[in-house]
Amino acid sequence: QVQLVESGGGLVQAGGSLRLSCAASRRTFSSYGGGWFRQAPGKEREFVAAISWSGDTTYYADSVKGRFTISKNNAKNTVYLQMNSLKPEDTAAYYCAAIRGRVGVEESRWNYWGQGTQVTVSS
């Protein structure tokens, strides 16, 4: 079992930046891929970014490419999401996820989820 705890959410003005962190409870997290999803009010949860277990490969939703960066520190069992040039449409609850196998955009493939952290971008 892997427990994930997100932090770093908050209120920011449009154009600002935030860095989300996702700390995992297990040392073996280094062998898991990491990802971020988000869910805005009244909308379905959607894929944001993912990173392979080694950190060599990353994937991004088109809506965040060039603005968000996902990274992984296996020594700290932590995945990060650096969010720059934030827009009001980025407002959502952001969820961290972990996967034992190959990363993918489909929610159903991910094995473990955090409780979420709220990001609110004001215009």
Q: How does this structure look, described?
A:
- This protein is mainly beta.
- 0% of the residues lie in helices and 48% in strands.
- It is built from no helices and eleven strands.
- Strands 2, 4, 5, 6, 9, 10 and 11 form a seven-stranded mixed β-sheet that branches.
- Strand 5 and strand 6 (58-60) form a beta hairpin.
- The model has no long low-confidence stretch (mean pLDDT 95).
The global form is: globular
Structural class: mainly beta
Number of separate strands: 11
Biggest sheet: strands, sense, closure?
7 strands, mixed
Termini separation comes to 40 Å
The proportion of strand residues reads over 45%
SSE sequence, one letter per element: EEEEEEEEEEE
How many helices in DSSP terms? Answer: 0
Work out the oligomeric state of the chains in this entry: single chain
Radius of gyration: 13 Å
Average residue pLDDT: 95
Q: Helical percent range?
A: under 10%
Low-confidence stretches: none
